[in-house]
Amino acid sequence: LSEALDQSRAPILEALQKFVDNGVTQFTTPGHKSGRSIDEYTASVLGQSTFARDIPELTGVEDRHMTVEVTQEAQDLAAQVHHADGVMFSSNGSSLSVHVALMTIANRGDKVIFARNFHRSVAAAIILTEVTPVWLQPPVDTEMNVQHGPTVESVREIIAKHPDAKALMLTSPDYYGFTSDIRGIAEVCHEHDVVLMVDAAWGPHFPFHPELPASEMECGADIAVGSIHKTLNGLQQASILKYAGPRVDPNRAKLAFGLYESTSASMLVFGSIDGDRRLMAMRGEELWGNALRQSRRIRASLAGIQGIRAVGREVLERPGVFDQDETKLVLDFSGLGITGVQAADFLATECRITVELAEQRHIMALITAADDDRTADRLIEGLRLLASWATEHGGTPPPAGVPPLADLQTEVVLSPRDAMFGRVRSVPLEDAPGQIIAECVSPYPPGIPLLIPGERITPPMIDFIHAIQDMRIPVPDTVDSSLKTLRVVA
Ligand SMILES: Cc1ncc(COP(=O)(O)O)c(C=O)c1O
Q1: Which of 89, 91, 95 to mutate to test ligand 1, by most ligand atoms within 8 A of the CB atom?
Q2: d(CA 199, CA 201)
Q3: How far does residue 119's CA lie from ligand 1's centre (Å)?
Q4: How far is the CA of 93 from the centre of ligand 1 (A)?
Q5: Which residues sit with their C-beta closer than 6 Å to ligand 1?
Q6: Atom of ligand 1 nearest to the CA of 92
Q7: pLDDT, tens digit, for every residue of 262-285?
Q8: Which of 307, 240, 322 is nearest to 277 (CA)?
């Protein structure tokens, strides 16, 4: 890409503003025609100006000739800051970017290795593309009871076992902000001509501050996903797909993208990606410097609050962990004898504070460029109140008998697509062990499937499902949302 790109420009925002200024009379979609026909109630909730800028890509942001030059220019600017040869904007979240990434790289039946701690959008991509999956189980961090990423050595071993694998896909950073040694893993993959795909949904801000982990593209990933709506200023569903180097065919990426993306992508969403990229290119280091400062300040304040511990750099000693994104503030409540879910409930109901993730032991408070002294102080105060409430009243202890993650390892016994769409039946939860599951079961957050179609159900999984029900952790993707029954292969 040319060095001459002007990062102070935002082509999509400029085109949106031009459209508004031109006072165009539309005989096009969307039917609200810049919000002319919405009622006052809708306008008062969603904002009249939201509708005024909700215009079509063609005949709105672009010209009638469908050259899509404005979007392309914005994507080229994004590619430069993300160290990619090419970037594509998604208005259907990183789920779409993940589906496109896999379809860009692999054909039906191709063997692809997946680090099994993936988000459920990866399970969907496997079902849609009909690749043949091979699981790589990252080591379990028994202290945190989570799987971070695979070690370089385990990648070397699994490629030796499956020399015909086309690609390897892993998630880095994980939901807790820990990254894998992407550079080391990329070297091993490329030695064996295996494409490295990285679901970096939680790390699109990495290029903007030297004290954040190195981004996956800088470390040699071939194709990667970043959720602009997760840690940056994108509107919900704003995501990017990035690729670089000789192992990815840009034409195939474009075609695959065309299969999945809406033909009416939201220019509000694309505009937010464009505006965020402009801001980050110009002031990213200052903004993320502040986010890091706030996160460190909250961590330091915990020295004065008994029973709450911030998970920190001690995790870097553990297998598979290479670096930490400190803006993901992971707090452990075991010292107070309460679960992360109870902590999150207290913060929400008593302090009007919401957090990104809550599970058995931890919460993760997401700190971004939007935080300042006031928001950080509110969280510190909320944590103080929580600690005194838990000390005084005592929480309900975490449920007993929850199987550790190490006992929940899975094995694929049938093609995920055949399992999902073949002959199925419904069985009571208690009768499910030994059966092959025909749906995803993904406790949310973090949305890592306990089971994906084609995997064998084991007794500890049923105990785990009971435990997450006790903790009121939602499982949004099962057919029977009460989880009294599971959908299995007939
Ligand atoms: C690791 C990971 N990948 C992909 C996704 C999908 O992202 P989206 O919600 O933008 O579709 C998520 C969502 O939480 C995620 O955590």
Answers
A1: 95
A2: 6
A3: 6
A4: 7
A5: 93-95, 98, 119, 121, 171, 199, 201-202, 227, 239, 447
A6: 11
A7: 999 999 999 999 999 999 999 999
A8: 240
Could you give the CA distance from residue 442 to residue 473 in angstroms, rounded to a whole number?
Answer: 10
| d(CA 434, ligand 1 centre) in Å | 30
| Residue 1 pLDDT | 47
As a whole number of angstroms, the distance between CA 68 and CA 58 comes to 8
Mean pLDDT of the chain: 95
Which amino acid residue places its CA nearest to atom 16 of ligand 1? 119
For residue 286, with 0-12 CB atoms within 10 Å meaning exposed, 13-18 middle and 19 or more buried, which class applies? exposed
Residue whose token pair is 């904007």 = 89
Closest to 287 measured CA to CA, from 225, 226, 211: 211
Query: 201-211 burial, b for 16+ CB within 10 Å, e for fewer?
Result: bbbbbbbbbee
Give bridge partners of residue 489 from the DSSP assignment: 424
User: Which residues, listed in sequence order, are joined to residue 178 by a DSSP beta bridge?
Assistant: 324
Q: Which two tokens stand for residue 330?
A: 């992971």
**CA of 446, closest atom in ligand 1:** 16
